[in-house]
Amino acid sequence: MQRSIVDSYQLRNDFPIFRRKINGKDLVYLDNASTTQKPYSVIDSITDFYSNYNSNIHRAVYQLAEEATKLYEQSREKIAKFINVRPEEIIFTRNTTESINLIAYSWARPELKKGDIIAITELEHHSNIVPWQILSQEIGTRLEYVGIDESGFLDLEHMIELIASKRVKLLSLSHMSNVLGTIVPIERIIKVAHEYDVPVLVDGAQSVPHMPVDVNNMGCDFLVFSAHKMLGPTGVGVLYAKKEYLDKMIPFMAGGDMIKEVFKFHTNYNEVPYKFEAGTPNIADVVGFGAAIEYLEKIGMENIRKHEIVLTEYALESMLALKHVTVYGPRDPKYRGGVISFNIADIHPHDLATIMNEHGIAIRSGNHCAQVLMQRLDVPASSTATALTCCRTRTARSRTRIPSPPASTTRASAPSTRGSRTPGARNT
Predict the structure, then answer these.
(1) Cα separation of 279 and 333, whole Å?
(2) Sheet hosting strand 90-93, strand order edge to edge
(3) The domain boundary residue, chosen from 297, 327, 344
């Protein structure tokens, strides 16, 4: 196993929640694909805002309001620099889901027409499926899915053929799968899409927290992600869009800060980005997001990615050596993120999560808001474990074994179940 330059044991001390014991055991948190834990610096920044700066922004000239406004806008600048775009191209939302819905409402509805194709993939989270289904029902656009192969990689030949058909008017896809960890060759795809004038929306909810993302190099037209998946607070999302799109898009919500002038029968909207930030925003948590960005940058996104590859390689080697374990997705850690989906013989994923919890280990079980992908895999549910740099797994010095299947459900001599069907499970 390679060694990492990141001292995850030391970083663990930055997170107050890891002082907790779960069932008398040290907490091992492996549900980072869902949400991440918060370091002291993020928690303290929020407390500091409410203690010393709390006031509304953009609307008053007294000192407190001006200081709050400065802190809020500094976070916008930090995020813009983090992904290499201009601050005015950063829109604050509640989460990735709201960001996608904003694009569907404000750009797609006026721009697309009956018969236009929106291309997505079998890897998508429900948040990048359902808004397009609703749009199709309302205005008659069509959804086309790009499939995956047995290793969890996109069928790029099919995608290129679909784009080249000149019927696709939007390509919306995840940069990294929240289930399989598959990293999509996004730059190559965007280059082909733009050759045919197809705008591209990238769901970066899993990629932006785990690897360097340079939008200027990537070339996407839209990028969406969430603070809470990258050590920041819940309730804050980001929509990046090229300014040429933002200028043309209609407001998603009306009132408050998105207004420049209001007359009896018409309104002049504010300039971007404020045109899309109606009402009082989540000021304190935006400030907290800025602190999370600073924390990640101090570690270095290149270092985080290298560390994650080391962890993923170790985890894959260990899990694949167990004959009762089925692991889904790419085998090479260079082509996947740190999320690993798996099943153990006939153990129900929810039962497994319960057993792991008894050992202080938090993992996710269910369909992971990706039922289309689960149907493709012919798996009703799975368990996932996702490492993040500062949320370490136990190493060989303190190793936790995956429990063997209980005798009541699985014979000790049961054959390998790679590729087999698992028992049914309720949706979570």
Answers:
(1) 43
(2) 90-93, 237-241, 222-226, 200-203, 168-174, 117-121, 142-146
(3) 297
Asked if residue 403 is part of any domain, the answer here is: no
If asked whether residues 228 and 198 sit together in one domain, one would say: yes
- Two structure tokens written together for 116: 């236009």
Residues 118 and 23 in one domain: no
Residue 410 in domain: no
Q: Which residues does the annotation mark as catalytic?
A: 369
* CA separation for the pair 156, 160 (Å, rounded): 6
CATH code for the domain in which residue 150 is found = 3.40.640.10
DSSP result, 346-395? T--HHHHHHHHHHTTEE-EEE-TT-HHHHHHHT-S-EEEEE-BTTBPPP-
Chain segment 332-388, per-residue pLDDT in tens: 999 999 999 999 988 999 999 999 999 999 999 988 988 898 889 888 878 888 765
Q: How many CA atoms lie within 13 Å of 347's alpha carbon, on the beta-carbon side?
A: 25
pTM for the whole structure: 0.88
Coil/strand/helix, residue 54: coil
pLDDT tens for each residue of 59-75: 899 999 999 999 999 99
Residue among 372, 385, 378, 303 at smallest CA distance from 340: 385
Range of the domain at 264: 42-297
